[in-house]
Amino acid sequence: MKQEILQRALERIELLATVSDAPEGLVRTFLSPANREAAELVMEWMEGLGMEVCHDVGGTVRGILGGSADAKPLLLGSHLDTVIDAGKYDGALGVIGALAALEVLRDENVVLPFPVHVLGFSDEEGVRFQSTYLGSRGVIGELESWQLEQRDMDGLSLSEVLENEGWLDDAETIFYDESSSDGYVELHIEQGRVLEDADEAACIVSGICGQVRLRVVMAGQADHAGTTPMDLRRDALTGAAECVLALETMAREHSPLVGTVGQIQVHPGASNAIPQVAEFTVDLRHPDDEALEHHLGELRNAFDAIANRRDLDFGWEIVQQNGAVDCDPDLTKILLASLESVTGAHGMLPSGAGHDGVILSTVMPIGMIFVRCQGGLSHHPDEYAEPDDIAAGIDILVEFLKRWKP
Hints:
By secondary structure, the protein is of the alpha/beta class. It is built from 12 helices and 14 strands. Strands 1, 2, 3, 4, 5, 6, 12, 13 and 14 form a 9-stranded mixed sheet that branches. Strands 7, 8, 9, 10 and 11 form a 5-stranded antiparallel sheet that branches. Helix 1 packs antiparallel against helix 3 and helix 10 crosses helix 12. It comes from Luteolibacter pohnpeiensis.
């Protein structure tokens, strides 16, 4: 790869990292001003490659590089939204790396015998609505009614946000079904420490773990913090705290199960008032669907027992559930050959993190490339990937595109 192409990719990653909805730290959420600004930048870069560009009402962008009219397209890309106080590589690398790979092919005068579609999805992290993959869900069909009814922290439903904040100007429908493409391949940082421990720059992904996201509510009685004896309290927050620890204990005892509580809200939220309501999220993941379902049932029983013992009302809502996904054998075979050609390695890893391929796998084959990230750190401002590792990931993608036959 020419150094100037790598340097341009690195500069674009840095530029996207400055596009944020927060004055400090990196935050881009579904249909936020920063998310749209990032999407517009990506569209400019796509146009610079001679791609036909468009966006949909939900903010997902697409660039099309034409190939044989008789061949189905191959999809590349990732997401443009972030978590709160995010790192700069998660998602952005997949979009920018795909464009860099096409730049390499252009400079080598390689004309692919199939079209390439590069997508920048508007929402994968699910920060705003706690309903992940809104971007990729949107391109495989209409969002379901329960998803449209999900509400953000301001009480706005997804349907209301699409109607009032959607990217309506010149919006087009981006849609894929089972007959629309030959597959989707994504370049992504590992978000773990395995590659670093193995001293490997990159590997190929074998599959993606199953995931469940929950919204849990514990409700008790607000009361005076100074006059209510401890044995008469119906404290929703202490009930929620016990639930959090029960989740942690379960996950520690049943590896590779992982569980996380990432958000909690308390009402009335005064220092001198006993909490009446505590609402929190749960993220539960496992590579085996049957095991995940079993642990989900155990967790609900544990939470229910805690609520009963503390005389609390208990609410439980599944806001997202995705089964484990295997990467496609044909794509993976060529990706492994490309990895070996570039790095000499032949490694594979499962992904504990979710990716847009989870949703796209319902209508097309998927494959993934992981590159090493420093300390395995992700969803954090110090997230970092070495330029040489990024170059290796892009080179693997280039080699894959050369080897892929429609």
